[in-house]
Amino acid sequence: MNCVVFLGPSLPTNEARAILEADYRPPAAANDVLDAACGQPDAIVLIDGMFEHVLSVRHKEILYALSRGIAVYGAASMGALRAAELDSFGMRGVGRIYDAYAGGEYEDDDEVAVSHASTEYGFRTVSEAMVNLRWGLELAESAGILSSASRSRLTALAKDCFYRDRSWFGLFALGSANGLPGGELQALRDFVERARPNRKRDDAVMALERVRGDMLQGLRQPTPGFEFRLTRTLSERWLPAVHARRASRHPTAPAPGVCDGIDR
């Protein structure tokens, strides 16, 4: 079966391929899911997405894919955000981060935001996601390494940081500057080096395993429970832009049929 996965800093692509053979693409920006949908894959998996300096994946793109009978999964990062927003329309959310957004435990986009390197450097992260810091601190408290008060204070200190500045090293320094017990901070440092808590990675793995399992059992294509309506912006700007992009990649190939006859 044909599957497109948008993946970047949440999980190395070579590790992802060991779980699920798919068409792996960089973190999705605006029109990327629309582009994937025009190839009529069986499934689209949105894990990582771009933001801040480029337009993010639009909700309408995902609804378009769902309306075409394509199974769309979301997890770990941008995918978890979009799945929490669109699960009532049939997008399939996977993982604890999705559950936290869907249940209202997380509300801010910055919980999953990270700064990372470009494609040629394998999307290596240069900051730590707030969800990973939270998870590590919770694990440390459960293991008896941190008191509840220290875990709560460190969580607040991390949340106050700009997403690009978040890191375990920075958090240890903030804890020390704010008078937290040195013994606890050293024990936390040792624990993090050992356990390397990474909820985004765990959820990305969970999503790929879920898709692999669904495909092995016979992927159930969605039956849209909503009426999808084309807008002028979608039909006159976004889809023509995608057609032009696809034509530049494959100059001799005709535009895929799924995008023809409904938007021109």
Structure description:
This protein has 264 residues and is of the alpha/beta class. The protein folds into 2 domains: 3-114 and 201-259, 3-Layer(aba) Sandwich (Rossmann fold), CATH 3.40.50; 119-198, no CATH class. Helix content is 47%, strand content 7%. The protein contains 11 helices and 5 strands. It has helices at 13-19, 32-38, 59-67, 78-86, 96-102, 130-142, 148-159, 168-177, 182-195, 199-216, 232-249, and strands at residues 3-6, 23-25, 43-46, 71-75, 92-94. It has a 5-stranded parallel sheet with strand order 2-1-3-4-5. Helix 1 (13-19) links the parallel strand 1 and strand 2. Helix 2 (32-38) packs parallel to helix 3 (59-67) and helix 8 (168-177) packs antiparallel against helix 9. The radius of gyration is 20 Å and the shape is elongated. The two termini are 29 Å apart.
Element layout with pairings:
Elements: E1 3-6, H1 13-19, E2 23-25, H2 32-38, E3 43-46, H3 59-67, E4 71-75, H4 78-86, E5 92-94, H5 96-102, H6 130-142, H7 148-159, H8 168-177, H9 182-195, H10 199-216, H11 232-249
Parallel strand pairs: 1-2, 1-3, 3-4, 4-5
Helix pairs in contact: 2-3, 2-11, 4-5, 6-7, 8-9
Helix content, binned percent: 40-55%
Low-pLDDT runs: 254-258, 260-264
**According to CATH, what is the class of the largest domain?**
Alpha Beta
Give me the side-by-side strand order of the main sheet.
2-1-3-4-5
Tally of distinct domains: 2
CATH architecture of the largest domain: 3-Layer(aba) Sandwich
Count of separate DSSP helical elements: 11
State the order of secondary-structure elements, H for helix, E for strand.
EHEHEHEHEHHHHHHH
- The average pLDDT score comes to 89
Question: How large, in whole angstroms, is the Cα Rg?
Answer: 20 Å
Report how far apart the termini are.
Answer: 29 Å
Strand content: 5-15%
Report the CATH topology name of the largest domain. Rossmann fold
* Assembly annotation: single chain
| Form type | elongated
The largest sheet, given as strand count, sense and whether it forms a barrel, is:
5 strands, parallel
The total count of strands amounts to 5
| SS class | alpha/beta
